[in-house]
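pls design
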């Protein structure tokens, strides 16, 4: 038996032993590869804004920002992350259909390049806050277009949605609303029609439509076209029947349209939002097998990291359960594979990370790796179910493994809870620190 999985020459077994499982492991070289390939493929006028929602870890964004990515944020925490990484306001856009006054004020005070405005009610609120601060805030109207993108695994436009302003209303009312709310200045549009698109033809058709619609909106709405955000939605293959997006072909076919638009509008910033495409393939969930058992003719490998860590692996939104790519971290030198149900520690039959996965023999203590897990991992999962808490996150950068998020321990889960007075219950605000051998080893490892 030998290790078959390494990240930049470091055995995943070594990393798991050092930082404990479950953990998310990210390869910085793959992050570099993805953003480098994107920037190489597309016209230089197209700017890349990383969607922090895909993976908001500060070191993941910090690395991407060091390589030229700006920030698309959707919360105060994401905005703070971008600012702490040294992103200027000119490199930040803020999106989301339900922005609070606190979020909008933070955007305005920090001078973000554009707030992506999703309703005229939001435009009114931005105007009021900006006026009270003695400022004028630039916004981009998010348009819900009449067309819908084909080939999208998750459609965001072309139907009644909470996202954006319907195309006809945006064009008809833009000029009137701009006059009524001058402290919210319209500078362009954003359209995000769908995500997980794997066919380059659909991305191209979608982009051409958006650029054409942007010109129509600006001309009929009476505002200058200083930015156009074409969304993104580039997909990565997760399942056996999916093919990789041909990025090079997409660039070859799409760049003439970008060049034509850039020549006609040389002062207009062109923005593409990318999250999953940049981060998904850099990551894996590592969990350790606690037990292997048979039940009614089927075999289960029960691990310490289930759907509480990786809800996306359940296949949420899919009609048919399909497995992410899953590997045993060890090679049994050609031993025949068999089917395993890979599950987690949760008290629910739905905690199935992989169903009937063909793997080499699995023993107690083995490591299971769920690949393509760098996007929508722990932050899109019920990490607090059964009070397990957040798993560790580790980034390998330049051949060295760094702990970029500590796991949650029981004391972390209880720290923000308050025990009120009950008869016979000690409600003093202290408790004995709960430490196991594993947690002591973990803390010793990260203190080195």
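designed seq:
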């Amino acid at each position: 038996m030998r290790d078959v999985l390494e990240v930049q020459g470091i055995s995943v077994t070594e990393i798991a032993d050092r930082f404990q499982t479950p953990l998310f492991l990210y390869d910085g070289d793959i992050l570099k590869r993805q953003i480098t390939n994107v920037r190489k493929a597309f016209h230089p006028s197209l700017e890349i804004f990383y969607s922090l929602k895909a993976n908001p870890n500060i070191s993941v964004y910090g690395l991407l920002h060091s390589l030229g990515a700006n920030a698309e944020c959707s919360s105060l925490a994401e905005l703070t992350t971008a600012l702490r990484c040294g992103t200027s306001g000119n490199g930040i856009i803020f999106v989301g259909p339900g922005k609070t006054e606190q979020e909008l004020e933070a955007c305005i005070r920090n001078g973000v390049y554009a707030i992506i405005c999703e309703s005229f009610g939001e435009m009114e609120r931005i105007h009021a806050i900006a006026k009270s601060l003695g400022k004028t805030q630039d916004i981009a109207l998010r348009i819900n277009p009449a067309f819908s993108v084909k080939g999208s695994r998750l459609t965001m436009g072309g139907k009644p949605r909470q996202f954006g302003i319907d195309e006809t209303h945006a064009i008809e009312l833009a000029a009137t609303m701009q006059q009524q709310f001058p402290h919210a200045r319209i500078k362009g549009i954003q359209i995000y029609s769908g995500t997980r698109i794997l066919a380059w033809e659909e991305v191209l058709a979608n982009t051409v439509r958006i650029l054409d619609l942007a010109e129509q909106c600006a001309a009929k709405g009476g505002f200058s076209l200083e930015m156009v955000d074409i969304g993104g939605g580039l997909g990565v293959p997760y399942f056996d029947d999916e093919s990789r997006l041909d990025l090079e072909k997409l660039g070859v076919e799409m760049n003439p349209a970008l060049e034509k638009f850039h020549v006609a509008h040389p002062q207009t910033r062109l923005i593409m939002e990318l999250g999953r495409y940049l981060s998904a393939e850099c990551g894996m969930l590592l969990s350790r097998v606690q037990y292997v058992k048979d039940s009614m003719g089927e075999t289960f490998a029960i691990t310490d990291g289930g759907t509480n860590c990786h809800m996306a692996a359940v296949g949420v939104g899919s009609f048919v359960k399909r497995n992410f790519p899953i590997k045993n971290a060890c090679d049994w030198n050609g031993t025949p594979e068999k089917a395993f149900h890979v599950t987690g520690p949760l008290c629910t039959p739905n905690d199935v990370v992989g169903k009937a996965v063909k793997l080499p023999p699995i023993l107690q203590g083995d490591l299971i790796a769920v690949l393509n897990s760098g996007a929508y991992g722990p932050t899109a999962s019920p990490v607090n179910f059964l009070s397990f808490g957040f798993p560790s996150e580790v980034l390998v950068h330049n051949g060295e493994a760094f702990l970029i998020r500590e796991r949650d321990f029981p004391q972390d889960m209880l720290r923000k809870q308050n025990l009120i007075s009950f008869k016979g219950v000690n409600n003093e605000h202290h408790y004995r620190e709960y430490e196991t051998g594993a947690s002591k080893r973990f803390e010793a490892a990260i203190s080195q």
